[in-house]
């Protein structure tokens, strides 16, 4: 086998490993963001028993059972949208959950001084990593 073929083969064989490592990095970032921003309400294990959970009219959800409550399939896009834009559930009043999309966007613009377009991508990535983390901890 010539050197060029060996390099191509090595790249092809390592691509799945790199993809797994990239996803693991995203999940680690998501867990870090969850711990910093969500655990106070949803608990460190995401089961809804955070330090201030008792202060809410409607207790924070158990986020480890999202897939089970959706019929066994993790509702990735719904969870992403809920984190990014918040929620209003008829009969339950306004959500007490912050709209994290706005927070992450403002945080990115303020702390990093990046362009608004780049800030949108960074904020979307932070939300995506939290959703990947939540998907990874489903019971």
TrEMBL record:
Q: Which range is the signal sequence, renumbered to this chain? A: 1-22
Instruction: Give a GO molecular function annotation for the protein.
Output: metal ion binding
| Span of domain Cytochrome c | 25-138
Against InterPro entries, the record matches this protein to: Cyt_c-like_dom, Cyt_c-like_dom_sf
User: What keyword terms does UniProt attach to this protein?
Assistant: Heme, Iron, Metal-binding, Signal
Its protein name is Cytochrome c domain-containing protein
Which organism encodes this protein? Marivita geojedonensis
